[in-house]
Every structure is written in structure tokens, then in C-alpha cells.
Design a protein that fits this description.
With about 575 residues, this protein is α+β, with helices and mostly antiparallel strands. The protein has 23 helices and 18 strands. The strands form five sheets. Strands 1, 2, 3, 6, 10 and 11 form a six-stranded mixed sheet that branches. It has a four-stranded antiparallel sheet with strand order 15-14-17-18. Strands 8-7-9 form a three-stranded antiparallel sheet, with helices on one face. Strand 17 and strand 18 form a beta hairpin. Helix 1 packs across helix 5, helix 13 packs across helix 15 and helix 13 crosses helix 21. The protein is globular, with a radius of gyration of 25 Å. It starts with a helix and ends with a strand.
Amino acid sequence: ELTASVDAALNAMEADGTLDALFATWFVTDEEEGGDDAAAEEGEGEAMAAGDGAGFVAAAMAGEYDGTVVTMMGPFVDADEQKFLDGIAAFEEATGIDIQYEGTKEFEATIGVRVEAGDAPDIVDFPQPGLLANFVRQGAVVDLNDHFSREFMESRYIDSWLDMATIEGEDGEIMAGVWHRVFGKSQVWYPADDWEAAGYAIPETWDEMIAVMDQIVEDGDTPWCVGIESGAATGWAATDWMEEVMLRTNSLESYDAWVAGDLKFDSDEVKLAANTMSDIWFNDDYVFGGRESIATTSFGDSPASMFEDPPQCWMHKQGSFITSFFPEGNEPLVDYDFFYLPPIGDEYGKPYLVSGDIYAAFSDRPEVLAAMEYFTSAESLKDGWLSQGGALSPHKDVQLDWYSDPIDSKLGGAIAAATSVRFDASDLMPGEVGAGAFWTEMTDYVAGNTDLDTAMANIDAAWPAGVEGESGSEIDGDAEEAAAPAGPANVVASSITATPQDGGLVTISGTGAAGQSFLLTPGDQAATVVVVGEDGTWSVDAGLGPGTHTILLQDADADGNAVGTAASVEVTLE
């Protein structure tokens, strides 16, 4: 019987000291989950089906799956792949399960081919839930509700993480995966030593933040560093601000409806968020360089003004990655720190805007489910990303002293204190919107080239008829047809590849409809228009220096303007 054998094995392992004490702190025994001997006698199959959420790891720790193999695929390569492997090493050693991870820079294209061919890995790491939703709708993903109880999952995550893992499938909603490493966006960075010397308080409400802003202005300085220029992707930083304010002025249900396209950009709710942001951005006293500088200031350069002596601006809202853009020689928690972007209304709690990875199972073999259960614990991150730096844990059992980086530790605490979390909305919207019209229209609005009503209406018009947002709601094609513009006849490129050549050249090539135009942005170079030949292919040579470069391909209209993201690929040159 499963419970009896597990208990006996665990007792023996504890007696001779071979059971890793770390695992004892996080896996849950049958007794803790309320199991009893009578239930155990129904056999292993029924125990797994009942899904107390602990039986799989417990059985694995007892050697039940020793010698088995779990295949896994995702986008981790190089240093990220090693951090992942370091995180699972203790589990593999303790259980005898061999997790064979295959990382690829062409993950999105590769996983689609594998699933379609019936060759899906056992577990797939999706860097955002949008692509996962496609496979859920195909019925290819295991419903974890069949194996892990809701009580167990709630012991590992706050409800918001479970909400975001719940996706509409063929026969209704399923629990499509478990969240693993994540990143926070709801931070306001500030020059800590100068801030303290000036005597400014850390605001805990939106009104308190406005008061600090006004005090900075009274002192003759400028509160905010803001820049949204990012080459062909200019505008994405503005969409992050919009998402932050949406979470602070609306319910989670309204935010999800916005992601799905059910709540229009032209609605009062979304316009309120835009106007709340504009109250700050369009006040020249509040933004370094004034409104006119925002669209032309690089997102990576904008926080540098905080580190001048004296600071030229005092606050910068951006994701945790932005510290890599800070001038060298600045010490965290001394020269810079962050505070949580305060809530606006008490009724919406303390939401956190996040991005991250969700792991989905494509097989329900017990050793696969044991690995999935392991990923519901921060232990699976402890020896990788937490101790080595670079990501955060969404799990309830995380200990802040597991983080080696002081900023990561503080960020981890901030996310743990959040009352709700939601994924970056633009990443979940159709590409024509989230990486197209949302970016471009916000840029035009901020630059003063269009008014708010026109910008919001144009974003709504860009939403493709009949395409659903990734929160699970489908747009009514008939209702959208009248509002949708004719637009370009372009189709999304079916492929893009980058092949290094001698002399530092890279051959970038792809496919499309004959005569179709794209905007190609090779790394940090200027965008150029490429046209598909009569044979349905195109090819360009670009000179790129050493390092890893992201090559972005965007659909273009007849005037050469970007109207959505078609494809992207990374290439590394020695």
C-alpha cells in the first residue's frame, strides 16, 4: 500500500540520516493532508487519482520511481539552464528521477512542431501563459485538478497564481500548470542615500506618493525619470504603466476582461487608468525633460539621471531587470533601493504586476506528477535562481534568506506581501494589439500626436475579429467586424532564422506571402524594410558584433509602419 510503504521508507531514511532535511520542511505527508489507513488500502492508483497533492513526491522520496526519466523542454539556455539544473539536482539525487531538460532559443517554433507530431515532452516551461493556452484548447495539457487538490495548491500559492494557471480547455476550465520562477514589475526605484538625506518619506498610498512628488517640486527638483523609446518596440514601457494603474483602479475581473478584449480600451475604466497616468506624465513639473522628452528617451537611459549629483529626477518605475542599466559602481540598498508602487483604492488591495514561467504537464505518469509537485515548492528554486540570483519565487514556502541578492530578497518579500498578482496584459493580448497598436498608439498619445479617445479607439480597432485574449474570453466576430479597419493584407511570417557567417555577418531569412513587407530590426540596429520575393522567401545579411542579439520582425503596412510582431529570433556571436 502506498501510504504504508512511504511511511516505512521515510522512517527508515530518517533513522539513518539519509533523508535530506530540506525536503522534510516542505513535502506534506498523508497524515498532514488528512489521509488514513483505510484510504491508503484502496491502492496506489486511487491514491494518485484522489490527488492529495503530496503522494507523488512522498512516493518518489521512497524510491517508487527510481530510474525513471522525465523529459522537459523550455527556453532556458546557458546560465539560465544551469540555474534550473542546479535547482533540481537535490530532487534528482533523492528520488532517482532523471529530469532531462532540453533548452532551445527557438522554443516557440519547436514546441508547436513537437506537440503536433505527438512527441511532446513530459513537462514544458512556458515563459508566459499565452502560448500555453493554445495547447490547452487543443486538449494536449494535463489538468492538474485531477491530481492535486485545491487545498494543496492553495497551500503553495495565493489564489491569483492559481487564477492565472486556470485556462479554458476543450471541456471547460483546467488547472494548466504551476508557476515557477517569476519577476516583479511594480517597483519604484529611487536613489536611496540622496532620498534619505533629503528627508523624503516612503509613500504607502497613491496620495502619499503625490505628496512626495509635490515636495520634490517645491525643493526645486523633478520627481520622475520616464522614457519609453525602445527602437521598434517603443511604447512598451507606457503599456506597463497602464497595466499598473488598471490593477489599482479596477477589479481583477475587469483587468481579465480587458486582457480578453471584453472590456474595450475605449471604456471609462481604461480611460480612467490612462488619465491617472497622464496626470503624472503630462505635468512638466513631474517629469525630467517634460512630456515632450518621454517618447524619445530610451527606457534604459532614463533612470541614469537619478544617479547624478544631485539627482536630476528621483523616481523610476520599472521591472527588476532595470538595475542592469544603472551606472556601474552603485551599491544596492545604499545608492539605490525601491518601494512598492502604492495602491490607489483600498478596495483593490495591493496588486503586483508580474511576468514569469509556468510549467505544464503533457503526461500524467506518476514520476512526471512528482516533478510537477516538486515545482510547487520554492525548494525547486533555492539552489538555482534564489541562491545565484536573477529570479523570484511565487511560492508561499519561500524563505527570504534563501536569496543571495539583497534586492532579490526584498523583491521576493514584496511579491509575497501582494494581495493579488496579474501577468503583463500586453503579453497576453493578440500580437496585433499587445505588441502592435497598444505600443504605437500609446507612443503617439504620449508624444501629443493624437488624443486619448482616438488612441483608445484605434487600439480597439486593431483587435482581430474572433481572436480571444488569453484570459479565456472570445471576442464576438460579428460585433468587431464593423469597427475593424481593412488594414494590411499581410500574414504573419511562418519562420525566421539567423545563421552566423564568416566576418561577423549574420544571414537573416524567413518566409511570407510574395510581395509582403516586414520591418526587420537586427539587434540594436535601425529597422529596415524587407520584401518577400516571388518564391515566398526573403534574406538579408547584417553585421552584428559579439554577444547575444534579438532580431525582431514586424508586420508593416503600405507606409512602412509596424502593425504587429511577426516573429523574433536570438543569435549569439562569439
